[in-house]
Inverse folding.
């Protein structure tokens, strides 16, 4: 291996290096002298050298800074806004760089609230542990405090012996303003008949309430005073209770809890009286229910009120009062009891305490606890130390007493919490007999033993499972770095430097990341040699996991144990900054130039390792059991292209995303500080026993990007951001008036222009200092005031400058200094010239002139049109941003379109008047506010609401629809003498309804969309930018013209643009053009040649959005990362698929592991390693049925391999259907890139529209044909793309579209609710006799509304236990047992099944069960037909795979009744489907066609194309190179079409020679 040692004339020599090493070339940060060096991967590397030689500049400021910057670039722009800006270090390039983690020498916090427990986060987990699992015990009886419920009382009754007599009672309560007779009457009215009198001798008497009322008041009051009085609720004799008995008992106990305000009594056999309480109380005490804040000493709720959570208070320090405990009281042990006057306290104590037997001659340290207490508190007549200080405090008005008291004051343990920091209520909560304070006081090694011996109940163990994993892992890491002797309560400010360093190391090393670059800054500082050896072992373990560990270090032990050493020097500062030697310790000792080598030579205390360890390859999972995974163990190689395939729903995404990705991200985020992690949300540890070899993970999922209309391809890829920078720095300005190039003006030209334009007018000369930035600018205002200026203009308003003046820091501001205010005239030309020069100097070449009307004109030394007199502000990147007010078109606000009221929709029948309902959004006249306004408008403009709208002039119609600037008086009153008049401005009825609808929610706003239409903005014509921004050009093109090109055209333009740029533009734009070209090439690599930068994100398919993110990741050039992709081939033509595979291999070849969830045959066969999940889907899957290389896989027999090796195949039909002889013909479609094409769709056939990506398929079908059919049949509003005509509509009577929009993904959404079959099932239950008797409505059987659902879990079936910063834990609801409904609802049964039982049925079980109910049967039978027989009706949508969700949606549409003339349009229905799933799907589609319907499919999958009856192929290329129909006919004919890319691949699929 050859490495360049020095640079020659500033240009680095090239060197040969290992492909996997980290190569730094041309580093020039700080004093580094163009250093080029390599860091061997997966080794322990020490960077050493004299102080100031450039070690930290190379490692922290170059290597770490670039690693962090690259990883941060992989995050979304939204996430990056919360991070500080990461600058690129001064280095030519770094290759092979993986995500970097730095553990620097930072001083830990010195706050007295910080402890070992809080620094390591162990205490945070303990708080959640005690809050969720801890049991509260009463300090009086020692019994557990808990809320009783109905089941507890019933359980107590059932526990009695057969024949035991139980009485259910509640305490008789008398209101203060009622006598006993009144209370008894109220009880009688409530339906109670008896009261229960119980004497102190446990003698009980039942008295009927009627009899008690007949007694006189004296006798009744006497009885009530002599007895405990209860109200009898029920009497029970213990037996084997039946279900009806249990129901009766439940009702009685519920009534008792209600009447007794939560307290119920049960008397057993006239003897034992047992109380039950549904409040959290016991022994007469009310307790707080445990919460995490109860155990926080940093929270006022949990902190001890005396010491405020500090554990210590300012009091009398016992060590200062008794400094020498070996002395006795007689010998003067009490320090303040000395001196001429104060010795009296000692004499009186010796005299009086001696009489009571106190040992006055015994040393203090030998006194018993009681005797020591007597010394402080006093005994008998003897006054103690506390009495002494009480007397001192009483005389603090005297200075000598204040001085005396100060001598003995100090920090002492808090007497209330004993130093545990928490309020006493926290110590009532215990686990395993210990409260949280006792655990924190244990050494870590003892705490580890305690946790190992801890035994929890099954339910508590389930809740605490994740917490215990985190606790045990962190405690073990503390043990590994030799900190087992510390306690969690140890204060951070009492730790040594070595202890602090190792605690920081603990937090980072506990994450178990691999394939990462760890950079440590002198971790051995403050460590003993023994501790250094422990540290070395930890660093070696970190290396052996597969990480590269770089240590900036001077310690000899660490250097000798290193695999590689880089010695910086030769001296410090400007005399250093070079690599003087590198290699192992042995190599350095032989190097004469190395100071470090000379030092190491001859020291043999730690032997040099003979050879370095090789890294361990492979990622291994053990015991994965998330979702349907069946406790699987699996491993796959690193730095390879690995494909996970299998049936849809077999567990692929559960393994790849929910397990591997979730754990990889969680581990990386664990290395961040607690402060950083609070912005990232809780990251759940997946259900897996162990994952080893896992490096930082980046997922590129099938998620549609932002639905924000402002997000475009250009903004997502950041190409548009670089283009904005290019135009701001190198763009040339042209006048929008004359079209001439803008020139910069001299000071004299500015003066003459102002004299000419503003002669005789009063103006303000303004110098801009702040433009479009947030901040309070207090210092700026103070600086302006000190310069002598009196006024500033802030956001258009002129203000006097005052001391401490500031702006709103959270708002964007424009701030200008008012340099002068004057009347323009030739006489004041000198003053004007001076003010202009001053303003230009302060405003850095730019000034504003503002007249009385606040009209602004820019004058600039930079850009001005001399002919028209207009000037532009100096361009900034936000000048070209349609998301900024400085660049966005003011008409459309940067959207490119405006919303207009559609007059024909608002007034569908002009013959009607407003009173008759002529305005469709309003309907007929009613006494509401809108009509009051219309009445006022009619009166103001002199017309009648009863006049037909067709007879009103267009001017009045426009006022009604769009509003008027006039102020309209609106009179409103209940009668003629009580009238109020309001003055309003009317903005039109649509605007008025919009404002009212916003209060009603999204549904109301959606209704209004029927009366509005989108229109291209007439001002910017869709360009989104101001006209000034559009007149900045580079090589003759403005930024919008470039953004509207497709990627192929854009790449060609940027490849030749340098020939058209000036020398200045080339210098400025060199780096920017390099970045733009790199990003464009990545888009080309993933087959997105047809997109344009102005394409909005919401119009992208999931596959396109994913490939854009893939292109971004390729551009980041990160290595040693695990990339996980979710079916990236979706929406790609076979030709583009080959490009994608090449891009993924490129990502792999630079040193990454690429894990792809995929069904595509080519992708599987091109992979290095394949995991096949199965054997079936859902509960029948979740296992790895085969794994290995593609060649090894083909030898095995699974569902996947059978299709790959040809054992199974989707058969080509022997005869193609000819259809019914009729056709739908779309003529001369020309939307987007379509070139006046005419398409024929034979009816009664399975028709497939195919072609390369971007060839115009979606434009032809989704944007043209479907809107035409939808408008024809359902009067839909969406306008189709341009076309000439359509023929054959009379031959079809219905259209159904099935697109790729996702189904609802909330936990309450399920297949039954999405397909609407649940409504039919609920109606079936409502019609049952039992439901009719009880008067149940459909809502009773809904788990989303009150009435029938279990209110404890609110119909979820699960109880969510909040775990603060940990993910919430879900356990089955204790009340309903996970059944979602209350007991009464579950008693209604159909064929022996309750509504809950039906939801838990699989589709396979439900089909025969509901066979006799056609409305239900048809929908669930379709679910079974599309291969979803294994899912349950009530299965949460969040647990469905992508393919399963797609098929649920498909089944919903296919279950609708077809007429035999229905036209189905399906957009890539094979998304997320396995070969076998496609086979099932085609069976369903063919049945629809056999019934006479027409099925039109947009598809690239050759299995679908080859079985179609009719094929339309578009192309020949994507974008501007497409838009033609290359072929119409059978698949065999397409295979013979030489111009078609599809035909070439189809020919091989059909095996045509």
């Amino acid at each position: 291996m050859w490495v360049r040692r020095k640079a020659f004339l500033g240009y680095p020599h090239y060197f040969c290096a290992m492909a996997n090493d980290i190569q730094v070339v041309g580093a020039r940060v700080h004093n580094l002298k163009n250093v080029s060096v390599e860091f061997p991967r997966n080794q322990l590397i020490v960077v050493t050298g004299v102080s100031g030689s450039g070690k930290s500049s190379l490692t922290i400021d170059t290597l770490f800074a670039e690693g962090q910057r690259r990883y941060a670039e992989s995050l979304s722009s939204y996430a990056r806004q919360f991070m500080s800006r990461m600058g690129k270090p001064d280095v030519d390039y770094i290759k092979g760089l993986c995500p970097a983690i730095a553990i620097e020498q930072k001083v830990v916090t010195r706050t007295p609230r910080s402890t070992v427990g809080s620094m390591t986060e162990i205490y945070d987990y303990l708080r959640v542990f005690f809050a969720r699992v801890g049991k509260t015990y009463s300090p009086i009886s020692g019994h557990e405090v808990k809320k009783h419920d109905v089941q507890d009382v019933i359980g107590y009754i059932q526990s009695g012996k057969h024949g035991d007599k139980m009485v259910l009672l509640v305490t008789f309560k008398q209101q203060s303003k009622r006598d006993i007779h009144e209370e008894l009457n109220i009880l009688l009215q409530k339906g109670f008949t008896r009261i229960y009198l119980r004497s102190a001798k446990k003698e009980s008497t039942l008295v009927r309430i009627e009899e008690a009322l007949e007694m006189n008041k004296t006798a009744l009051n006497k009885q009530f005073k002599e007895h405990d009085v209860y109200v009898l609720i029920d009497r029970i004799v213990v037996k084997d209770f039946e279900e009806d008995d249990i129901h009766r008992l439940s009702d009685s106990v519920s009534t008792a809890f209600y009447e007794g305000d939560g307290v119920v009594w049960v008397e057993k056999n006239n003897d034992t009286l047992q109380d039950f309480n549904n409040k959290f109380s016991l022994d007469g005490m009310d307790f707080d229910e445990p919460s995490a804040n109860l155990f926080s000493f940093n929270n006022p709720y949990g902190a001890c009120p005396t010491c405020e959570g500090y554990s210590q208070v300012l009091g009398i320090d016992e060590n200062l009062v008794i400094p020498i405990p070996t002395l006795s009281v007689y010998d003067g042990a009490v320090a303040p009891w000395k001196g001429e006057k104060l010795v009296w306290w000692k004499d009186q104590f010796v005299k009086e305490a001696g009489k009571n037997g106190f040992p006055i001659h015994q040393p203090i340290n030998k006194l018993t606890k009681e005797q020591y207490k007597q010394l402080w508190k006093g005994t008998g007549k003897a006054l103690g130390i506390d009495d002494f200080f009480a007397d001192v405090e009483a005389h603090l008005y005297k200075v000598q007493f204040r001085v005396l008291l100060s001598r003995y004051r100090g920090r002492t343990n808090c007497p209330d919490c004993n130093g545990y920091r928490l309020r006493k209520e926290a110590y009532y909560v215990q686990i395993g007999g210990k409260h949280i304070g006792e655990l924190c006081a244990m050494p870590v090694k003892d705490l580890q033993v305690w946790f190992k011996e801890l035994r929890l109940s099954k339910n508590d163990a389930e809740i605490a499972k994740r917490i215990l994993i985190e606790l045990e892992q962190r405690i073990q890491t503390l043990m590994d770095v030799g900190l087992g002797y510390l306690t969690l309560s140890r204060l951070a400010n009492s730790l040594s430097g070595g202890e602090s360093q190792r605690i920081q190391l603990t937090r980072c090393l506990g994450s178990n990341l691999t394939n990462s670059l760890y950079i440590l800054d002198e971790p051995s500082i403050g460590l003993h040699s023994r501790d250094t050896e422990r540290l070395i072992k930890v660093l070696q373990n970190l290396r052996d996991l597969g990480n590269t560990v770089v240590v900036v270090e001077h310690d000899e032990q660490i250097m000798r144990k290193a695999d590689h050493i880089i010695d910086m020097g030769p001296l410090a500062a400007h005399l250093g900054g070079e690599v003087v030697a590198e290699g192992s310790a042995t190599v350095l000792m032989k190097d004469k130039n190395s100071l470090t080598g000379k030092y190491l030579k001859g020291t043999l205390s730690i032997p040099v390792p003979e050879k370095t360890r090789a890294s361990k390859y492979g990622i291994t999972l053990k015991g994965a059991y998330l979702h349907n995974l069946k406790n699987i163990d699996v491993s796959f190689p690193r730095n390879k292209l690995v494909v996970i395939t299998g049936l849809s729903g077999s567990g692929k995404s559960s393994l790849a995303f929910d397990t591997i990705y979730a754990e990889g991200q969680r581990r990386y985020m664990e290395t961040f500080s607690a402060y950083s992690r609070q912005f990232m949300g809780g990251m759940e540890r997946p259900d897996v026993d162990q994952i080893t070899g896992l490096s930082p993970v980046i997922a590129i999922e099938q998620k549609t990007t932002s639905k924000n209309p402002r997000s475009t391809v250009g903004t997502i890829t950041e190409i548009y951001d670089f283009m904005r920078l290019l135009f701001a720095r190198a763009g040339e300005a042209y006048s929008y008036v004359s079209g001439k190039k803008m020139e910069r003006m001299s000071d004299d030209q500015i003066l003459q222009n102002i004299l000419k334009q503003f002669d005789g007018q009063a103006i303000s000369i303004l110098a801009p200092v702040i433009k479009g930035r947030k901040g309070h600018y207090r210092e700026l205002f103070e600086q302006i005031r000190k310069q002598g200026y009196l006024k500033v203009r802030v956001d258009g308003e002129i203000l006097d400058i005052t001391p401490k003046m500031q702006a709103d820091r959270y708002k964007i501001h424009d701030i200008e200094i008012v340099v002068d205010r004057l009347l323009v005239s030739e006489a004041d030309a000198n003053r004007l010239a001076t003010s202009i020069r001053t303003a230009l100097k302060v405003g850095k070449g730019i000034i504003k002139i503002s007249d009385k009307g606040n009209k602004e004109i820019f004058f600039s030394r930079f850009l001005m049109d001399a002919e028209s007199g207009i000037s532009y502000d100096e361009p900034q990147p936000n000048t070209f941003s349609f998301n900024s007010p400085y660049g966005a078109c003011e008409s459309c606000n940067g959207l490119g379109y405006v919303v207009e009221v559609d007059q024909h929709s608002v007034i569908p029948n002009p013959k009607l008047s407003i009173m008759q309902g002529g305005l469709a959004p309003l309907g007929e006249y009613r006494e509401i506010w809108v009509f009051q306004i219309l009445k006022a408008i009619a009166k103001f403009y002199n017309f009648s609401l009863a006049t037909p709208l067709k007879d009103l002039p267009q001017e009045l119609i426009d006022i009604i629809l769009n509003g008027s600037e006039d102020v309209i008086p609106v009179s409103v009153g209940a009668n003629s003498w009580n009238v109020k008049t309001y003055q309003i401005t009317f903005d039109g009825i649509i605007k008025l309804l919009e404002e009212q609808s916003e209060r009603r929610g999204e549904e109301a706003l959606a209704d209004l969309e029927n009366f509005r239409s989108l229109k291209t903005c007439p001002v910017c014509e869709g360009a989104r930018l101001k006209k000034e921004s559009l007149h900045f050009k580079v090589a003759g093109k403005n930024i919008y013209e470039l953004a509207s090109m497709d990627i192929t055209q854009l790449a060609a333009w940027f490849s030749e643009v340098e020939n058209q740029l000036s020398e200045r533009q080339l210098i400025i734009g060199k780096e920017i053009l390099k970045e733009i070209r790199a990003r464009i090439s990545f888009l080309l690599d993933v087959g997105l040649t047809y997109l344009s930068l102005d394409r909005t994100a919401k119009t992208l398919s999931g596959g396109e959005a994913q490939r854009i993110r893939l292109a971004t990741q390729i551009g980041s050039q990160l290595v040693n990362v695990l990339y996980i992709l979710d079916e990236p081939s979706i929406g790609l033509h076979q030709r583009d698929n080959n490009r994608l595979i090449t891009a993924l291999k490129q990502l792999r070849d630079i040193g990454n592991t690429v894990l792809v969830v995929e069904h595509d045959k080519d992708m599987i066969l091109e992979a290095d390693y394949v995991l096949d999940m199965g054997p079936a889907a859902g509960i029948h899957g979740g296992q790895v049925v085969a794994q290995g290389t593609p060649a090894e896989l083909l030898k095995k027999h699974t569902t996947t391999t059978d299709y790959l090796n040809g054992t199974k195949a989707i058969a080509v039909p022997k005869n193609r259907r000819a259809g019914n002889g009729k056709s739908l013909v779309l003529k001369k479609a020309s939307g987007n890139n379509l070139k006046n094409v005419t398409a024929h769709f034979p009816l009664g056939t399975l028709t497939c529209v195919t072609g390369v990506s971007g060839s115009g398929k979606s434009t032809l079908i989704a944007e043209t044909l479907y809107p035409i059919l939808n408008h024809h049949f359902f009067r839909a509003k969406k306008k189709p793309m341009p076309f000439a005509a359509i023929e054959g509509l009379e031959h079809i009577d219905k259209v159904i579209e099935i697109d790729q929009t996702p189904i609802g993904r909330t936990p309450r959404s399920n297949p039954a609710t999405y397909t609407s079959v649940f409504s039919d099932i609920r109606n079936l239950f409502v019609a049952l006799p039992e439901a009719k008797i009880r008067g149940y409505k459909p809502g009773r059987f809904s788990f989303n509304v009150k009435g029938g659902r279990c209110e404890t879990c609110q119909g979820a079936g699960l109880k969510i236990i909040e775990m603060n910063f940990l993910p919430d834990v879900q356990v089955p609801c204790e009340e309903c047992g996970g059944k979602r409904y209350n007991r009464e609802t579950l008693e209604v049964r159909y064929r022996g099944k309750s509504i809950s039982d039906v939801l838990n049925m699989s589709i396979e079980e439900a089909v025969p069960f509901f066979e006799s109910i056609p409305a239900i049967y048809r929908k669930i039978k379709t679910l079974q037909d599309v291969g979803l027989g294994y899912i349950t009706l009530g299965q949460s949508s969040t647990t469905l795979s992508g393919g399963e969700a797609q098929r649920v949606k498909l089944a919903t549409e296919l279950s609708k009744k077809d007429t035999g003339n229905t036209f189905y349009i399906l957009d890539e229905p094979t998304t997320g489907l396995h070969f076998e799933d496609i086979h099932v799907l085609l069976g369903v589609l063919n049945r629809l066609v056999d019934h006479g319907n027409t099925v039109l499919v947009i598809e690239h999958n050759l299995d679908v194309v080859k079985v179609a009856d009719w094929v339309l192929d578009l192309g020949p290329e994507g974008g501007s190179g497409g838009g033609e129909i290359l072929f119409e006919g059978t698949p065999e004919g397409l295979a013979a079409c030489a111009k078609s890319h599809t035909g070439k691949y189809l020919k091989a699929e059909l095996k045509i020679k």
In short: Residues 1-18, 603-609, 611-615, 1000-1006 have pLDDT under 50 and may be disordered.
